[in-house]
Amino acid sequence: MNKKIIVFLFLVSGLKSINAQNYIEESYRFNVNYSLMVGFYHRGEYVNAAQYSDSLIGNHFLTKYSTFFIAKVYACDFDYLKTMESLEKAVKKGTTKIDIEHSYDLDNFRENNLYLILESNYDKWHQEYIDKQKNIQLDTNYINTLIPINDLYYNARYKLRTTRKGDSTHFISDSTTRHQARKTIDSLFYEMVYIITANGFPTEHRVGKKIGKNYNPFFRRLLYEIPDSFNLENPKWLIVKKMITEEMKNGKLKPFFYASFIDQYKFVKKEPQLYGTINYIYVYNSLAHLKYENPEELNIRRRSVGLCSIQLKLWSSARDLPPALQNINFK
Q1: Using H for helix, E for strand and C for coil, what is the string for 176-227?
Q2: pLDDT at residue 210 above 90?
Q3: Residue 258 — pLDDT band, cuts 50, 70, 90?
Q4: What are phi and psi of 202, to 5 degrees?
Q5: In angstroms, what CA-CA distances link 223 with 12, 242, 259?
Q6: pLDDT tens for residues 262-316?
Q7: Which of 22, 61, 95, 164 is deepest in the core (most CB within 10 A)?
Q8: pLDDT at residue 147 above 60?
């Protein structure tokens, strides 16, 4: 087996919980069944989609978005009892009445008598979500540390805006301004790494350093704004890596969290990705730039971190295999 696969398997096999492997397998089952459900839904095969919705019930990785999507799949399959049951779970996770009213997939369900049950219980179910949010203790010191970084980042990003005309891209700002903006964004990445080493790895609201709605932009910047000059052997990054590994070991981050970072890092370095977490590139609408290390073992690596096969992932979103994976004999 490839040496890099062994290294990562060693990382995930060190999970403290006796259910650690089950955690990875549950992630794998979620990704398989959810991808199948989404794929059949997009093809209008709602009976098949609903079959995989059943397989997701009780899965640890369900979010309010995936739970709400399951409700819509059941509605398209005219199974209104399961639609209502899924909507109850979704509302308790934070789905709003506006979300429900604006979904055309639920048009027929709203004309069914079961919708009256939803209407009469909505406030009670939504209150459960509100109460849970009230009990979340956010780390205000951490959040206040991020605020000036957020402001600097968005100001720099604004200077990098582009406008598209047909197939052409026109930069609004001059090259000097873009260069300075890029330098600012790169420096903010290193500042974020420093903040993590000083304050711990943040989370949305589950455990540890809770930063609430600040988590998603924080994570996106950490993942998608890796500077060209960044090195995985950076001493401070080695501390961050250890923190991420610990969170993964404890089941507090998804088992493919670090795999996503590695793929982005390799993409920045123009190296073949390992886990196929980058499924498309917005460059001339082409997948030709995607490359993979030992592509025949790609699905082995993906499963080791709880991801479904690359063929299934791309099928679910109606995308063809990138040229680099065509005619590959996957193991």
Answers
A1: HHHHHHHHHHHHHHHHHHHHHHHHCCEECCCCCEECHHHHHHHHHHHHHCCC
A2: no
A3: very high
A4: -80, 160
A5: 20, 16, 11
A6: 999 998 898 999 999 987 655 444 566 788 999 999 999 999 999 999 999 999 9
A7: 95
A8: yes
pTM, to two decimals: 0.83
Sign of CA dihedral 76, 82, 83, 89: negative
Tell me the domain boundaries of the chain: 137-253
Q: Please give the structure tokens belonging to residue 120.
A: 């009469």
Kindly give the interhelix angle for 140-159 and 215-224, rounded to the nearest 10 degrees: 50
Q: Which residue has the higher pLDDT, 82 or 9?
A: 82
Residue type at 182 in one-letter notation: R
List Cα–Cα distances, 118 to 83, 109, 113, 130, 131, in angstroms.
10, 10, 9, 17, 19
